[in-house]
Every structure is written in C-alpha cells, then in structure tokens.
Specification:
The structure holds 2 protein chains of 2 kinds. By secondary structure, chain A is mainly alpha-helical. Chain A contains 5 helices and 2 strands; from the N terminus they run αααββαα. In chain A, strands 1-2 form a two-stranded antiparallel ribbon. In chain B, the strands form 4 sheets. Chain B has a 7-stranded mixed sheet, with helices on one face. Chain B has a 6-stranded mixed sheet with strand order 6-7-8-11-13-12, with no helix packed on it. The chains are: A mainly alpha, B alpha/beta.
Chain lengths: 133, 358
C-alpha cells in the first residue's frame, strides 16, 4: 500500500515542479554574468564620477584601475576605522574624507554594490587573504 | 645623516650638520663637485593638481600640499639656486586652476622654471600655460651643468587634434590615468630634432640634467608611466659623460640606471599613486633598483606626498625626498656601482613592511 502512495506523491511532485533548483542552463549562466557585467560597468562609471563626492574628486584619482584597494584582504583590521571592518565601510570612509561626501552609502545601495563589483573585478584572480594588512 | 661615498660629500654633510637648519622640517646638504664646478642644489616641486570645485573654491587637500611645499622650499638656507615645478599644476587645465596654482607658486623666492604636464596641456594645448611660463621646451646652463626641459607628454596628432569632439572631452580622457581611451606620451620628432640641435652645442663632459614630466622610459603603459620614443631620446643622451633625468607624473619614488643615464622620479604634492605592480591584471616594469616608498596611509592627508631637494655631486643627482608623514628618503648616485641607490635600504634586511605591503 505505501509504495504506490509514495510513488504517487513523487509523481505529483514531478508534475508540479518541472524545473529543479540546481537546473540552470549555459544560457542562464551567461545571463547572470551579463547582469554582473552591467553592474560592474556602472561601478567603473562611479569610479570616475565627479558627483559621487562633494568636491569633484573621484576614486580613480588615487586608485587607477582600483589598485591599492586590496579587496582580497577584507574583512581586516582597518587602521582608519579602528576596528575590523568590511570593504564597504572603507569605501564610505574614502567617500567621506578625500571625496568630502556628506552621506554614506548603505551597504546594499546599488551604487555601493556597483563600486564593490568593479573593485573585485579589477582584482580578479588574487588569492583571498582575509585579515592581512 | 645621509651616507654618501666621497670625501667631499662627507665634508659637505658636516657643513649641513653644523646646524643652519636642524629646527626646520627640511635638510640642506651642499655637495661638492669633484672638479671645478660649483656645488649647488635646487628644490623640485611637482604634480600639484590644483582642482577647481566651483568658482573660487578649490580642492583643499591639493591646495594644502602645494602651499606646504612652497612654504618649506622658501625656508631653505641658503636659498635654493632655483626651483623647478615638475608639471601638472592644474587638474584639468582650466585657467582658474592654472591661475590658482600660479598664485601659490608665486610665493617662491628663487627663480622658477616649469615643466609642462599633461593635465596642463590637453585642454588648450598649453596656450594658457605658455602665457604664464613661457616655452614648453628650453634649455639653460647653471654652474657648469646643462639643463634641458622637455615637453614629454605630447601624443600623436590624430588623437590630439582630430579624435575628440571637444577639448574638454580630450582633457578628461588624458586626466583619467587609467582611461582606456588615452594615448601614449612622447617627446615627438620635432622636439627630438630640437634636442639634437641643442645638445650639439654642449661638450660631452658637461653634466646633463633633463627635466621631463613623463619618465623617458617604458614602465607601465596602462597608466602612461611611459614615453613612446624613450629609446630615441635616450640615444640622443648616450654620448654624454653623465646624464640625469628627473621626471614627475608617477607620484611615487622611482629610480633607475640605463647605460649612462640615471633616472629619478619626484613625488607629487597632491596625492600618491600605487606602484604599477599593484594592478594585477597587467604586466608592468618598475625599475628593479627602486625600493618603494612606504605604502600610503590616507588617514594622514599628506602621507606619501612631498617635495624634493635635488643636489648635484660630480655631475650626478642626489634626490632628497621630503616626506611629510614618513622618514625621509634619499636616493643618490653610487660611484662604485654606477647607479642611483637608496643607501639606507640597500640591504634588503633593512626594509620595512611598509615598503613591501602593497
């Protein structure tokens, strides 16, 4: 009696959910990566956007190609913040200080996501070394 | 106290230590030529990047760097023979920026000689800069040394004259160091011809000091730490006994020796740049001689910025870097190894983590 019942349930499940959670195609992957590419391109635009701060200074002035941002070392003790911090907190420190921006960006602000995407992309392939100075 | 090799320089160092300037944030060492030339030194300030925000408001950070360098250079005793400004006075070449920078520089007591930078040039092709400072390439002699100033940030005519819809767009592309739409720097054929003619009148034993904004070497093309016709320019300098190239643009300590030519970079007063190897997606060729400056700490606004005192000893340059938030660095010519050396850090065991954590 049980086996056919279980078989029936499985059958119903199969009919009810034709797509499985781990079932993505090569086209899907291309689409997801294109989404990312768009966001990191936005990040690059922000990297040279003189309206990001209040004084016209842009990230690219001190960090050409996002060099010396060391995303692979975060979280780490960040001297300027006096604590172990994440990269987005340091981005806000830079926005506030050399760029004189009044309001920080929230961690999940699309602009912060874009900036972090660009930073990570320019550092692709470098080994993760959290906590390293 | 800087360690220098010759007997004369030991004497000279003693003179400095005799204490005209121990209370000042700058040091002054006069080095004697081994020979008949008079000793002298000069201050070198570079890469101010004066940046207008709006109207009479300029980025305070960069203003402070230039003001401080000018004030300190004025404190030198004895007074510097002259001062060189190494290029990039303005950020995007606007008259307001050049005027504001020129006004700050005008406080300098010694005579000022200026070098053109790309940030000064690409808005109006140097017109206003030349009104302020005269020709963008020229030469002069001083106490037995022949100085040549080059405009080494030119690029090809197509990019300069025909490619961009507006001058502002052209300037913006050159202003962004990492712009993929930039174009490699060069001295160019016309100026090389001028250089050849100028040098033809100079005795081969006369020390040469060439002042340039771009490195006259090929270090990293992606950031225009590059001079496209470097080899041809070096070829013109080859016959001379001692040649020194001093260049700006890179906003960091670099030094090198190629044949008979010593190269020394100067710091920016505005902000530091990472060393090219910090960008892992591309290959670069920082001179292997260079012991890097300490990694910049943005918490200290003036860290990794500064100016330098250049002294000339036996036809060779010593660069004393005045770093405002770090131990000073001195790069001088080692007559034994015949190349510029930072004696304090020559031994790799003496280097600090700040010099390797990039």
């Amino acid at each position: 009696m049980r086996v056919p019942f279980v078989g029936l349930m499985l059958g119903l499940l199969l009919l009810a959910s034709p797509a499985r959670a781990d079932d993505f195609t090569a086209d899907d992957v291309a689409r997801y990566e294109k989404e990312f590419d768009g966001v990191r391109a936005d990040g690059r635009k922000l990297w040279t956007d003189d309206k990001l701060g209040a004084n016209g200074v842009v990230c690219a002035q001190c960090h050409p190609n996002a060099a010396n941002t060391h995303p692979e070392t975060y979280p780490k003790f960040q001297k300027q913040l006096g604590k172990v911090a994440q990269l987005w907190e340091m981005v806000n420190w830079c926005l506030r200080n050399p760029l004189e921006r009044k309001e920080p960006l929230a961690a999940n602000d699309p602009r912060m996501t874009a900036l972090l995407s660009y930073i990570a992309y320019e550092r692709r392939g470098v080994k993760i070394r959290p906590g390293e100075h | 106290m800087t360690r220098l090799i010759s007997r004369r320089s030991v004497i000279a160092a003693g003179v400095a230590a005799a204490g005209t300037v121990t209370t000042l944030p700058v040091s002054m060492v006069r080095l004697a030529f081994a020979g008949e030339r008079e000793d002298f030194s000069f201050a070198y300030i570079s890469d101010a990047h004066i940046q207008q925000i709006k109207g009479a408001s300029f980025v305070r950070n960069w203003d402070m760097g230039l003001r401080r360098a000018v004030a300190e250079a004025n404190l030198l005793k004895p007074e510097s023979d002259f001062v060189i400004f190494g290029g990039d006075l303005a950020q995007i070449g606007k008259r307001e920026e050049l005027d504001h920078g020129a006004e700050i520089l005008s406080a300098l007591k010694p005579k000022l000689h200026c070098v053109m930078g790309e940030h000064d040039y690409y808005l109006d092709l140097g017109d206003y800069w030349r009104k302020l400072y005269g020709p963008d390439h020229y030469s002069f002699d001083h106490k037995g040394v022949h100085f040549v100033v080059l405009n080494s940030i030119l690029t090809d005519d197509e990019w300069t004259l025909r490619h961009w819809a507006t001058a502002e767009q052209r300037m913006k592309e050159m202003a962004n160091l990492d712009s993929p739409n930039g174009s490699p720097f060069m001295v160019g054929e016309a100026q090389r011809a001028w250089l050849r003619e100028d040098l033809a009148k100079v005795d081969l034993d006369t020390p040469l000091i060439v002042l340039s904004h771009s490195p006259l070497q090929k270090i990293y093309k992606g950031w225009n730490f590059w001079t496209e016709d470097a080899e041809q320019v070096q070829e013109l300098l080859r016959p001379f006994k001692s040649v020194n190239v001093i260049y700006g643009h890179v906003h960091q300590i670099q030094y090198n020796q190629i044949g008979n030519i010593s190269f020394n970079s100067v710091m920016a007063t505005a902000w530091p740049w990472p060393y090219p190897e910090a960008y892992t997606q591309a290959e670069s060729h920082l001179p292997v001689l260079t012991v890097p400056m300490n990694r910049a700490d943005p918490f200290f606004e003036r860290d990794a910025t500064g100016w330098q005192l250049i002294s000339v000893h036996s036809g060779h340059v010593a660069a004393r870097y005045k770093l405002w938030d770090n131990p000073k660095r001195t790069v001088s010519f080692d007559p034994v190894e015949e190349k510029p050396v930072d004696f304090d850090y020559r031994d790799a065991a003496l280097r600090t983590p700040s010099q390797s954590h990039y």
